[in-house]
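pinging the channel bc i need a second pair of eyes. not urgent but kinda urgent?? the chain im working w is below, pasted from the shared doc
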Amino acid sequence: MHRPSRRHLTVATALVAATAAAVVVTTAAGASDTQQQAQNAVKGGKAKNVILLIGDGMGDSEITLARDYTVGAGGRLNMDKFPMTGAYTTYAVHADGTPDYVTDSAASGSGWATGTKTVNGRISKTPGTDKAVPTILELAQKNGYATGSVTTTELTDATPAVLASHVSDRSCQGPADVAKCTSDTIAAGGPGSIAEQSVNHKVDVLLGGGKQRFDQKVTDGKYKGLTVTEQAQKLGYQVVTDSSGLNSVKAGKPVLGLFASGNVPVEWTGKAAAAGGTDPQRCVTSNPNRPATTPSLADSATKAIQLLEAKQKQRKSEQGFFLQIEGGSIDKQDHAADPCGQIGETAAFDRAVKAARAYAAKHPDTLVVTTADHGHTSQIVPLEATPPGLSSTLVTNEGQQLKVNYSTNTPGQSQEHTGTQVRIAAQGPQAYRVLGVTNQTDLFTTVREALRLR
């Protein structure tokens, strides 16, 4: 049985004392948690469940922009209310192990999924030798935990892919997409594309977009000639495509929810940033291209928690579950310099954070962590600024104007990630491990220690 190191016990003891002395409950302007909740988060111990929430591309600027627009400069989002907050570094590495200062989502996700940094574009494999590294989800499964992944992107996109697949290149999403992963194909004796691996892993709950990948036909092996969706059904999955189907699934059998052909349509729309700026605009908080039957991220997260908990109760298991929830299109709207799309997706992610914290409030043996995989391009700048890139002026819910700028690439090109450290916050057993400035790979250790994974 794993035992915490003397160093961590000493740190935890010191933090309990420091928290008792220092935690002050503030006013409605933005109290995080009560003193007792903060002290509980310091104590350590074993978690029954872990809920990991990833805002893709959600750096401090993205959080601040969503906060200013939706709840005001003096307000607080749900993700602001965790008792323990720190930062972690996000760099990738080159094949020789030297730092690559700006990561992509594949390398960053592989970092927390495996505890090993890798090269940009690679999914849960070593940087130099291209060998598969066990993931936190795989370890959780081996230790009897139920597992799930929820996203607003394609289920085969980088962040969900890192949990239950190992490929040389993130582009190898379906059986027809494996040109850059010839050694990973089933024909070459490998595990197949990301879609094939995801269902072969029998992850209990998979909810997101990417139906187009699962509609591709398997070209080799046991399921040759079937689509990946048909392969999933052969493996016992209940396949659903909308809110009604999701609400009707039975607990105890794995669920594959495919709610869009590609990425799930965003919730908000508005004018993209432009060279020279835009007229002041209010965001449109409904998207005519998003079907009404599409579940929200919060709804998918809530249902995933219910299904995972129910499965373990049916099994009468002492173990709980591991669930990753991704707000994936914060990043994609940042790339597109679309502030309204970006804010709407951050707000949707924040509602998923609220759902996770509501569950944890009733189940304090749940570790909840929220963070990002990397920083991104948006910056809040003075109204009088004339930035050289793309900008947009928004009218916030406080009735004030705010200018957001995108200048990490030439106008007309996709805006880029940044190499900045990003926020990580937590509550529950082992939450104190996120304090200070840590490394992205340390998140793997935090989850492993919390669940006592062998």
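so Residues 251 and 307 are 5 Å apart (CA to CA). and The longest helix spans residues 339-362. — does that match what u expected or am i reading it wrong
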